[in-house]
């Protein structure tokens, strides 16, 4: 699923972080049936999640929020600061927009609600890693719009360096990502095929050194490259 180019396919490497062993076991069993997903590690707390992430090199972490020693949001911040290309799906019982905004600010690509996690986790892992929108469009637009009004650190040295290599078309597509648009909507606006849009999104993510389209949009908004919801 992940590779250096859109056609370079290998199983997605996934780390499961949850302090409840039965949850990790159930999720591992579900994902073991998916030939394009490989569970490469598990963690029982946030601190361990960071350590295992360093040693196992996952593409994506499924991160429970409420864990001992270090909670999931703090672990997400540390992982994203050290390994920005690693995507994080937050596992949570809350779907309140304020709560989800904090997850996105921490660096999460999206979220999995606990009550249907086993049904949706494989689908959402694929969604994030192929560059499709991991959040409902309406929710994404609200979160991104609110991000534009929030103060906070904007240290994106590597991403800013990568942004200088974006083509004009890629900057245009990035602007649409910042508005919460789907690939289909971007294709319609720019009179492109959906496949071409996906290729542009993949290249944007790669050049910026971020993990997913959500964080590409966050980068664009926080650095003033694009405005949400116009």
* Order of strands, widest sheet: 2-1-3-4-5
**CATH fold type of the largest domain:** Rossmann fold
The unreliable regions are none
Average pLDDT, all residues = 88
Q: What is the structural class?
A: alpha/beta
CATH architecture of the largest domain: 3-Layer(aba) Sandwich
Helix content: 40-55%
Protein name: Two-component transcriptional response regulator, LuxR family
Modified residues (4-aspartylphosphate): 64
GO molecular function, one term: DNA binding
Keywords: DNA-binding, Phosphoprotein, Transcription, Transcription regulation
Describe the protein in words.
The chain has two domains: 119 residues, Rossmann fold (3-Layer(aba) Sandwich); 76 residues, 3-Layer(aba) Sandwich (Rossmann fold), CATH 3.40.50. 51% of the residues lie in helices and 12% in strands. Strands 2-1-3-4-5 form a five-stranded parallel sheet, sandwiched between helices. Helix 1 links the parallel strand 1 and strand 2. Helix 2 packs parallel to helix 3 and helix 8 crosses helix 10. The chain is globular. The model has no long low-confidence stretch (mean pLDDT 88).
Which key terms come to mind for this protein?
Rossmann fold, 230 residues, 5-stranded parallel beta sheet, 5 strands, 2 domains, alpha/beta
Summarize the structure.
The chain has 11 helices and 5 strands. The protein has 230 residues and is α/β, with parallel strands linked by helices. It has 2 domains: 12-130, Response regulator (Rossmann fold), CATH 3.40.50; 147-222, Response regulator (Rossmann fold, 3-Layer(aba) Sandwich).
């Amino acid at each position: 699923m992940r590779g250096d180019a859109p056609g370079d396919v290998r199983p997605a490497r996934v780390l499961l972080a949850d302090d409840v062993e039965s949850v990790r076991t159930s999720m591992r069993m579900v994902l073991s049936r998916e030939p394009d997903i490989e569970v490469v590690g598990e963690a029982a707390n946030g601190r361990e999640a960071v350590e295992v992430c360093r040693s196992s090199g996952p593409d994506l972490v499924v991160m429970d929020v409420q864990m001992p020693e270090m909670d999931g949001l703090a672990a997400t911040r540390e992982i994203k600061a050290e390994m920005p290309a690693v995507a994080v799906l937050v596992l949570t019982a809350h779907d309140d927009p304020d709560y989800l905004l904090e997850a996105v600010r921490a660096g999460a690509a999206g979220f999995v609600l606990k009550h249907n996690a086993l049904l949706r986790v494989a689908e959402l892992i694929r969604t994030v890693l192929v560059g499709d929108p991991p959040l409902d469009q309406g929710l994404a637009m609200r979160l991104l719009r609110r991000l534009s009004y929030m103060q906070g650190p904007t240290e994106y040295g590597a991403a800013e360096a990568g942004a200088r290599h974006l083509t004009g078309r890629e900057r245009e597509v990035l602007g649409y990502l910042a508005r919460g648009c789907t690939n289909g909507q971007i294709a319609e606006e720019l009179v492109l095929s959906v496949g071409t849009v996906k290729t542009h999104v993949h290249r944007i993510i790669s050049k910026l050194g971020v993990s997913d389209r959500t964080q590409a949009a966050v980068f664009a908004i926080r650095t003033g490259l694009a405005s949400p919801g116009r």
